[in-house]
């Protein structure tokens, strides 16, 4: 099966990675890490979240981080926005893009947003409308697409219905989340084939977690179906704080290694990316879980 000759990697570590850390990283370390990431050739970095600090204290300094990073013109700098207050702060931060988010399962949506799905949709629509009025691009995250920690399997028809609602609001891209890392290649194929019939695949990204070791296999399946945009977190940092045990984002460094070996271009300099990984490893209290960084931790050469 023919696969794309290039792929887009969207780095979410400074947000999705750090939000799940037990310790709070100093602002200057976050800024320095993002500056390192900006030098790697990445075209997209999700730098933080404007969720209330009560819920995600690890990212309470989002505005300060945004104001102090060194920006590159070829990089899109984005942040998660939960409501109008968060959007106001994102506008103050002069970001390029904001992301809105919701879950495909009712219970997880209530745990994560404290609203039903029906209550969430008009809130997101209002945020998207205002963000567009200010010239921002908007991304939509749909969590628990491949399984919910409370409800189990999520119906594909529910995923398609909510995806349509988000696109109708005017989002530019939809990121489909395997929030608890339960997806397998057959399931991914079944869902993506249905979604490809309903929406342009170029407007869909995949956000896999590697909780059960299937993230790269799922990426391969997506590539074989023509999807080429993936969220990942350098070193495998992160997870969902509202889904117990959902640690381990797909690692950017491991994904890049696979794509390069397959001859799929990304525009990312692997040596500089691993230098950025080594920087953040140096300020974290525990080892990064990615395969590449495990090689580094054991004294090997991950290059």
TrEMBL record:
A biological process term (GO) from this entry = ketone body biosynthetic process
> What residue stretches are annotated with the Pyruvate carboxyltransferase domain?
7-274
Q: Which GO terms describe its molecular function?
A: hydroxymethylglutaryl-CoA lyase activity; metal ion binding
Q: Which InterPro entries match?
A: Aldolase_TIM (IPR013785), HMGL (IPR043594), PYR_CT (IPR000891)
Which keywords annotate this record?
Answer: Lyase, Metal-binding
Q: Name one Pfam family in it.
A: HMGL-like
Q: Which family does it belong to?
A: Belongs to the HMG-CoA lyase family.
Q: Which NCBIfam families match?
A: PRK05692.1
For this entry, the protein name equals Hydroxymethylglutaryl-CoA lyase YngG
Source species: Pullulanibacillus pueri
* Gene name tied to this protein: yngG
């Amino acid at each position: 099966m023919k696969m794309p000759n290039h792929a887009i990697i969207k780095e979410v570590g400074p947000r999705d990675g750090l939000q799940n850390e037990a310790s709070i990283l100093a602002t200057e370390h976050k800024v320095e890490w993002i500056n390192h990431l900006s030098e790697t050739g990445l075209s997209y970095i999700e730098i933080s979240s404007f969720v209330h600090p009560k819920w995600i204290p690890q990212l309470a300094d989002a505005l300060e981080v945004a104001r102090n990073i060194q920006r590159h013109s070829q990089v899109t700098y984005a942040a998660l926005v939960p409501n109008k207050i968060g959007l106001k702060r994102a506008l103050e931060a002069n970001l390029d893009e904001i992301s809105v988010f919701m879950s495909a399962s009712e219970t997880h949506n209530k745990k994560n947003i404290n609203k039903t799905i029906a209550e969430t949709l008009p809130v997101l629509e209002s945020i998207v409308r205002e963000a567009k009025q200010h010239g921002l691009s908007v991304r939509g995250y749909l969590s628990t697409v491949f399984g919910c920690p409370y409800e189990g399997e999520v119906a594909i028809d529910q995923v398609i219905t909510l995806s349509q609602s988000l696109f109708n609001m005017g989002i530019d891209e939809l990121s489909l989340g395997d929030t608890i890392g339960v997806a397998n290649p057959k399931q991914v194929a079944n869902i993506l084939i249905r979604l490809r019939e309903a929406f342009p695949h170029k407007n869909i990204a995949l956000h896999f977690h590697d909780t059960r070791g299937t993230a790269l296999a799922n990426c391969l399946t997506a590539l074989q179906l023509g999807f080429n945009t993936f969220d990942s977190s350098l070193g495998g940092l992160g997870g969902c704080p509202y889904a117990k045990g959902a640690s381990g984002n797909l690692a950017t460094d491991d994904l890049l290694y696979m794509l390069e070996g397959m001859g799929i271009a990304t525009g990312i300099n692997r040596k500089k990316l691993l230098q950025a990984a080594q920087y953040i490893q140096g300020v974290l209290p525990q080892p990064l879980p990615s395969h590449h960084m495990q090689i580094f931790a054991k004294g090997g050469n991950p290059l």
